[in-house]
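Quick one: structure for this chain?
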Amino acid sequence: MRKTAIRLADGRELLYYDADADADRARAGSADARTPAGSAAGRTDRATAADTRALGPVATGSEIRYDPLLGEPVVIASHRQARTYHPPSDACPLCPSSPGRATEIPADGYEVAVFENRFPSLAGETGRCEVVCFTSDHHASFADLGEDRAGLVLDVWTDRTAALAARPGIEQVYCFENRGAEIGVTLGHPHGQIYAFPFVTPHTGRMLRASADHTARTGRNLFDDTVARETADAVRVVIAGDHWTAYVPYAARWPYQIRLHPRRRAPDLRELDDAARAEFPGVYLELLRRLDRVFGPGEPPTPYVSAWHQAPFRAPGRDAFGLHLELFTVRRAPGRLKYLAGTESGMGSFMNDVPPEAAARRLREVASA
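Got it. Here's what it folds into:
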């Protein structure tokens, strides 16, 4: 993998990531479904492509407050009210720049690009927010990518995790993708985000406590035992690879929810072994494509959240944490969404309309031929 760093007109950092030719040949899988201009087949000198926009400085005002009743942090980021909201496709800020139209990406093409968010929820002493563009093709989705590009994105997530872990005050890195207007996405270009938190997030904190309690009771690892139970039961397993296991959780909160664990437990992306890294692109792309087929032919793309759960860097229990990816949709049936009603929003008590066993069965039925 080759990384090229530049600065945007307002001083923000942008990184271009290109697959190394030797790594491409070694990585299993086909080329991308699309080969946009500026990719390996038509690469420009991105280091010399300057951002020609007249941008003012980034204004941020993030503040972390703590709820004394819940003991949890809340980020207040009022400056984000002015962020870009559903621009037309010909004004997409994540597409490559072209003559007469400068965007967040100065080059005329790219493979994967990462840059500091101009409207970050976390900035400076409160952390950092980055945007990850998976392809320069505005009309693609992650599921359209080939295995080499998906492998490059995995390398990018890993590289950014390592870089952000080295920054002072960062406790946890969260790599994720939101897809679909139903999820709240405001930019249609295929992209994800990376948040570097200065605190351990509440969700992760609950997992750490559950892990510690399980070890205190049993002497065993919670993540290992959970994957072993799902594998033995088998009814909720969606894909059983050589190095990854994908299953619908026994107590799934969402209509179609998948957890993807490496068989060899690792606390974060930096510690995945080579075998798991090589198998991941094929398994992950298959899960995304199944999710798009789960509601039947002719249905619009399935909205989803794809979230990497990584161990905090310094919290007690880090070594016992099990890295995993969680993939779920808010769509429960064709044309119907699961909204967070009073029990979920007010009490945090989830009610799921789709039995996890039925969801897993459907996800197996729509496997690629």
